[in-house]
Amino acid sequence: MLSKNKIKLINSLNLKKFRDETNMFIAEGTKLINDLSVTFHCELLVVTPEWLENNTPIRTKELLEVNFEEFKKISNQKNPQGILAVFGKATDIALSLEEIGSELSLALDEIQDPGNMGTIIRIADWFGIKHIFASQTSADAFAPKVVQASMGALARVQVQEVDLENFLLPLKDKLPIYGTFLKGENIYTTPLSSNGIIVLGNEGNGISPAIEKLVTERLFIPNYPPGNTTSESLNVSVAAALVCAEFRRRLK
Amino acid sequence: MLSKNKIKLINSLNLKKFRDETNMFIAEGTKLINDLSVTFHCELLVVTPEWLENNTPIRTKELLEVNFEEFKKISNQKNPQGILAVFGKATDIALSLEEIGSELSLALDEIQDPGNMGTIIRIADWFGIKHIFASQTSADAFAPKVVQASMGALARVQVQEVDLENFLLPLKDKLPIYGTFLKGENIYTTPLSSNGIIVLGNEGNGISPAIEKLVTERLFIPNYPPGNTTSESLNVSVAAALVCAEFRRRLK
Fold first, then answer.
1. Do A224 and B122 make contact, defined as CB atoms within 8 angstroms?
2. End position of a domain, from candidates B55, B71, B88
3. Which residues span the domain enclosing A212?
4. Do B64 and B28 meet the contact criterion of CB atoms below 8 Å apart?
5. Which residues of A touch B225 (CB under 8 A)?
6. A78 and A150 part of one domain
7. pLDDT in the model for residue B229
8. What pLDDT band is residue A252 in, cutting at 50, 70 and 90?
9. What is the pTM of this model?
């Protein structure tokens, strides 16, 4: 049986305010929870008897078994698997300029769609990018929709919320800051550094003027046939993938 | 004033059954509707007085002006722009084997998420791919969510619903049929044809066994660092973009 307080706690974690206050977030599904448990401590695991019959729970501070009807009160899924975890967020470790400067990282300038946010975290994971710096105006990486869309990649990629302009300002003269634009250098033929920051812009408006000023290298992803002007844009996560792939390909 | 019949007609177009029956679909937003009007005939345009004050309507069989309260009854958007169009679908022109064989096209094996579907149509548009063949189990290209996510690319890319297995069967011996797998040839180093079909698989299950049998070339998108086995997969639209980009890059 789930107490009213537990239901209230879990449902409150759908809101950023409470995730920030408690430093906790929720995830659903066997595989996702297993993947996340490698990095995050499980504070509370809620499962149905049906789930428990066929699976072994991860290590958790508290385990609660509730029937499916009860479970639906806390689930955000259309077809709940019968397992939900409350995880404690890992503490952000502030990186030095030198550490940031030695890596290739992503900076998100107001990525608003949780699906895009999750997809970008998966892309970072695929291409071995360890750090994402997200503007405070971006979707929260620990929102349930983002957590689900990231498919466990959150366990391997650190997403840090920053004041993006003030974050990039001291980096501008130390390492390349890349952005994609319709007018830029062809990414396939321009030299690319093995370190630096790739800025990804808002779904509707692209990179904001204040951040664009801090971009030192303007890249263009070629469309086809060359010079084709009818196709106007790519989804931001698609652009992210094409850019990350090209940076990593150069390192062979 | 919108008659009850008009409201009923428009809302019915949220369902595939009625889109198929009437051969019509709906779209919202000034830019999207302008883009689509290049290819599709507008049967009915519904606008608010506020919209009409600032914009010029496209050519349409019927124009209706309704107040914002009325407009909200037919809109699927959180923040409606005050313009909705009912378009007639273009008639599918059956392509000959020779025509299909001379191009690079996409085949969708149960792409279920409307957002992915729309993103894939945009990707095809960006890379000058004119035809998408979608299994009957895929999301409908004319579903409102897909239309909105495709951002006008539907005007330039023809999406045709097919029985995918029977469609691919006679093509198998005539042109390469590509698919991406975790075990396949590195897409950056394997030869790629300028024509052929790229198969994209379901979000959760990948390419189905029946279709996998028809794939003649298995491709792998390298992750980083090479041999990294923790990152397991890419979103299907992200994989689509990486594959299309590589095919087109070879044509330079």
1. no
2. B88
3. 97-249
4. no
5. 128
6. no
7. 72
8. low
9. 0.91
CATH number reported for the structural domain that contains residue B80 in this entry: 3.30.1330.30
Contact A248 B126 (CB under 8 A): no
Pick from A34, A117, A238 the residue to mutate for testing the B interface (most B CBs within 10 Å).
Answer: A238
Contact, B55 vs B30, CB < 8 A?
A: yes
| Closest approach of A200 to chain B, Cα-based (Å) | 15
Helix (H) or strand (E) holding B97: helix B97-101
Beta strands in chain B (DSSP E): 24-28, 41-47, 62-65, 83-88, 104-109, 131-135, 158-162, 177-186, 196-201, 217-220
How far apart, in whole angstroms, are the C-alpha atoms of residue B55 and residue A252?
A: 52
Contact A189, A98 (CB under 8 A): no
pLDDT tens digits for A76-88? Answer: 999 999 999 999 9
Name the residue type at position B218. R
A230·B127 Cβ contact <8 A: no
The interface pTM score, or ipTM, of the predicted complex is 0.89
Asked whether A154 and A121 are in contact (CB, 8 A), the reply is yes
- Provide the domain count of chain B: 2
pLDDT in tens, B115-166: 999 999 999 999 999 999 999 999 999 999 999 999 999 999 999 999 999 9
